């Protein structure tokens, strides 16, 4: 009887310890998510502060892009007004604002004089750095949310989550299709990427074997691509290096005549 009581007490203690450990882990993960979200919120506020200065600088050079500036201002105000909303709603507003900013930067490329403005270049650099930090913070935040949501749904930790009202957290996802799309690479031409033309020597096709090439001076009757007999040399063509040159017979019998027999005088070319 005593052994049974001890076993029951031990099981209760083990379950209590597991309950405390699991609960504390949920609290730690929830606080980590909140801390990572605060880091994103800091960078978002920094972007809100940079946008008005950037718009005013661009407006001085690109007054014709008034509709673009008005759209950026409207979406910035919309993003500021949803600061207390869940991450999903904030992500939707920030995605629209990012798309408007990208459209504005594309529009100002038609004004080369703006590219030499030092104030614009500094603001553009600061905005780019801010966007990079927002992207890094978003990845860290979503990774923590993924681990937390997995524990909320997995067994047996889901029992603790349901008992103590630990609900799933929302992701801060990018809604801009231009950011999510994969760049297209075209291999339509040999040796070309993204429409880049191949070198001329790669574009030219092989010449037909029956096409006659122009004659080379000093090589009459010998077309380019035709093999030559070993040891054969065209008139006016220098001998090949390392190839013996045929010497004409001097004072000897012409080619094809029999060699002199014993007792007969050699042939001297006379008649």
From TrEMBL:
Gene3D superfamilies, per this entry? Answer: LemA-like domain
UniProt subcellular location: Membrane
Mark out the compositionally biased spans (Low complexity). 220-245, 258-271
Biased region (Pro residues) positions are 246-257
Chief site of localization: membrane
Instruction: Determine if Cytoplasm is one of this entry's keywords.
Output: no
Q: Which family does it belong to?
A: Belongs to the LemA family.
User: What is the protein named?
Assistant: LemA family protein
| Organism encoding this protein | Kribbella capetownensis
Q: Cite the source lineage.
A: Bacteria, Bacillati, Actinomycetota, Actinomycetes, Propionibacteriales
